[in-house]
Input
Amino acid sequence: MNDIARRSARRLDWRPPLVLLLLLLCTATLRAQQAPGSGELRLIDAGGVAHVQASLDTDVAYRVDGLVADVTVHQRFRNDGKDWMQGEYLLPLPDGAAVYAMTLHIGKRTVVGEIREKQAARKVFAQARASGRKAALVEADSGNLFRTAVTNVAPGEQVDVELHYWQRVDYRDGTFSLHFPLTYTPRYHMAKGAVSAAHDPGIAATQAFASAKSEPPLRTQIAVTLNPGVALARVVSPSHAIETSHHGATWNVQLRDPSVVPDRDFILRWTPQPQTQPNVASFVQTVGGAHYATLMVMPPQQQARTLPRELILVIDTSGSMQGASIRQARAALDLALKNLRPEDRFNVIEFNSDMKMLHPQAVQATPQAVQQARDWVAALNAGGGTEMAPALKAALDGHAPEGYVRQVVFATDGAVDNDAGLINIIDRDLGDSRLFPVGIGSAPNAGFLKQAAVHGRGSETLIPDLHEVGDAMRGLLARLGHPALRNLHIDWPHGAQAYPRALPDLYLGEPLLVTARLDAPGGRVQLHGQLADHAWTAPVSLDAARPARGLNRLWAQARIEHLEEQLRQGGDEDTLRPQIVKTALDAHLVSRYTSLVAVDRTPARDKPQALRDTRIPNVLPAGSAFAQTATSARVWMLLAALVLLLALATAWWQRREAEDA
Output
């Protein structure tokens, strides 16, 4: 081969790999620029300057009376751009929140929202949008997410949307708590065939997120007025710095900082003085001739007999668990492994896009087996998708030996979008197991975790911070070692409609909380259950119950959840939908079939003027990464580097062959 031919061959040999390299590098750059969390609501002008197009500030005001909280969420939508705008925002609320009112404030004008069937509300909103009138719409999206939209906001104008909802106060291990989700973990779409409903893999395109470091256009303030009904020993927040003061029996709580970035859930806890902790608490309300009662009963406080157990530990190692979340999960499982007793049996399962089991089946908790498991867990890293279904099936597939209790501890952030399919697996495969979800991270999918616990006849535990892993897991393990009450049922007065219908087993320190609608005020309630070695019963008189507000809407919300559960299990929609709609309309609640809509009757935008749609992003949860199945920018960069090395090696090899020829 002559010199000219060799030079030509070398030039041609370089072109394909170089072209591919450039393509990969361009793709990596675009992927990095388009990565969620980069604040995509900014427009770039001709000079290359980014402009924020809209912003949303949120104030949250709690009023707590005993076991019920009345909450006002005040959102200020500002149009900082040059165009008329319609903005949308996904608002996470606590699981079981009963959203009952909305008010639209435009300057000095106030418009009160109406509850309507969802399609009718959408039609009213669309007509307002087309005619240039300001309007707001709130509808249930999925799980604990609510979609809010406000339309026809003029450049430089501010529109205030005020939402009201009721929620229950949680009580566990002698401590009351409130949980307000300020953001949510991006939901992963299950792969096709993984569960009953088919979805394309990947993150839903409708989810928009901004990084807290990118100066997101969201700020939040929180204030709580607390009337606990008992003397308190302390009031604390493990999630945020707070300031507290009290006057008599009323406590006032506010964030220490004037406003915070909403990148983690707000949690408030208050502990009664020991001598005032009640074994029984009951609250009643009469509204429009209807009577309601909420009942909370603590199980017996004596230590139940410890039973040997078969403990199945499951850890989520998907991409959304990167960072602090995977460290929390590893620490949680390590503590559970260290607390195993020689008579216990155990296994460990990890899942992301795939599932791996430490052992084919549960093994005895010998010191050697426990140490092997701890080493295995310590080496786990997060990455990939959230294919939860195979791990859930594997964890529930088994039966404990005679005399053992079988318990499944499932550590995850719950970042999945098909809750119903996973709940179906629990209903079908639970058997004699009990499921205990452990919510990991600063903004876990609490709604799914709670439903999984209810259907798994266990309880959920939330661990928002790495420093809380020890206390939270020790509390959970202590409860798991002492099942207090099983086979629970309640005798209500005749004609009562109580929810939830299926009652879980109770463990030491966990309350039973049920809401009922009664035919008449007062009466007597009798609880029955089974302790380790004998029957247990407890009477409760509703005549001595304390008055409370909001029980009617809490009952309606529980009834709606029960009817929607029947739908999920294949119930007749033609029969169940009218019942859901009637319950929601009577209580003025947002549901899957009803929405709140508010429309200003005064036109604001002339029809020829363009209306721009925009999405207000949620802030990514602190300490978490965006779980996605598409190839990340970092992987594309690695691929580009590999192609470059391959190109160099190929060119070198071909050059040697040409020289040898």
In short: The radius of gyration is 28 Å. DSSP finds eleven helices and 40 strands in the chain.
